Amino acid sequence: MDHVDDGGIMKIWDPHFHIWDVSQTTTSGHDPEQLFAPEGNPVYTLERYEKDMAIEGFELTGGAFVEAVSVCHVDDDGPSFEACCLAETSWTSKEMDGSDLEYRIVASASLESPNVENLLASLKQHQRVCGIRQIINHEPSWPRNQKRGNFLENPSWRSGFAKLEDFGMSFDLQLNPHQFHDASVLGESHPKIPLIIGHLGSPTLADLEEGQVYWDGMRRLADLEQTSIKLSMFSYLDPDWDGNPLVIETVLKVIDLFGSERCFFASNFPVEQHQGWSASKLYSAFLKMVEYLSEEEQQKLFSENARSAYRL
Q1: Residue 244, Cβ density class (10 Å: 0-12 exposed, 13-18 middle, ≥19 buried)
Q2: What is the DSSP letter of 269?
Q3: Within 11-125, where are the H helices?
Q4: Listed residue (193, 187, 174) closest to 236, CA to CA
Q5: What are the phi and psi torsion angles at 105 (to 5°)?
């Protein structure tokens, strides 16, 4: 079990980061029209990520790369898009081969595809692949979903989701608060598929200020034993979130709701860095929020819970 070591170092196993190549000659499956070039360099390698995550007082031990293809290639479906999903995982796997840290891959797949079984089987050939994310935010819709609608209401997508159990895969659930109820019903029907909620459920400040839809749905999701939740992407709520009492209150209430065993902080790099949050600033703010907890509970939030969720 990981702990804060004798020198006071907090270990990090980061359950949500991205690497990508959005150069004009990319072979990674990523889309320069949808993704940005971090600090002006279009190739954000694992080596760059590890350097960015070198923080005094913390030690990066690995993490879960989370796909970015499900926001890419907005007009493409079928074999051409599925080839991008495979390319992303292949490129990422090669990047990880050069590191001594412990990584997992949350790959991309079109669960609504008639070829979904073959796609999942091909992705699973990469030993680090442990789960799938397909962004399903609808109204407000993330790039691909304006055209494709609410996947939770799509029978083909729901059928593809069910196949994750056959492959021993988890699902990273990125959605909007008004979709929480339907997602919880889906989870109830498939209790053996771990659900890992992304980014607090990606609420807006208006969702938190209104409150009822967000918290009613979040309680339903928390009631599912297979769910856990990432504490991340707070800059989506407020670029200066560490000074916003509503954001802090929400994070602490989510920790209380899910318990300190099913929550974990994540960097969401390089996106948060792009919003002005260095790793040092980000993780210091995370730690400040939970300084009331014991060191053992803090370490669970920074490493152990995420390792468990992604089955290391």
Answers
A1: middle
A2: B
A3: 46-52, 78-97, 116-124
A4: 174
A5: -120, 125
Please tell me the distance from the alpha carbon of residue 89 to that of residue 105, in angstroms, as a whole number. 7
Residues contacting 208, CB < 8 A, separation 6+: 214, 237, 246, 247, 250
Position 134, amino acid: Q
Edge-to-edge order in the sheet of strand 227-231: 10-17, 58-66, 102-107, 129-133, 170-173, 195-197, 227-231, 263-265
In angstroms, the CA 109 to CA 105 distance is 12
Burial class (CB in 10 A: 0-12, 13-18, 19+), 209: exposed
Q: How far apart are the first and last CA of the chain?
A: 11
- Cα–Cα dist 285/241, whole Å: 10
Digit-coded pLDDT (tens) for 19-35: 999 999 999 999 999 99
Element (H, E) at 287: helix 279-289
Q: pTM for this one?
A: 0.96
Closest CA to 213 of 243, 184, 248, 172: 184
**Distance separating alpha carbons of residues 214 and 191, to the nearest angstrom:** 22
Contacts (Cβ under 8 Å, ≥6 apart) of 312: 13, 62, 102, 104
Spatial CB neighbours of 78, under 8 Å, sequence gap ≥ 6 = 113
The closest alpha carbon to 302, from 239, 255, 242, belongs to: 255
The 10s digit of each residue's pLDDT in 115-172 is 999 999 999 999 999 999 999 999 999 999 999 999 999 999 999 999 999 999 999 9
Q: At what angle do helices 245-258 and 279-289 cross, to 10 degrees?
A: 60
Residue type present at position 166: D
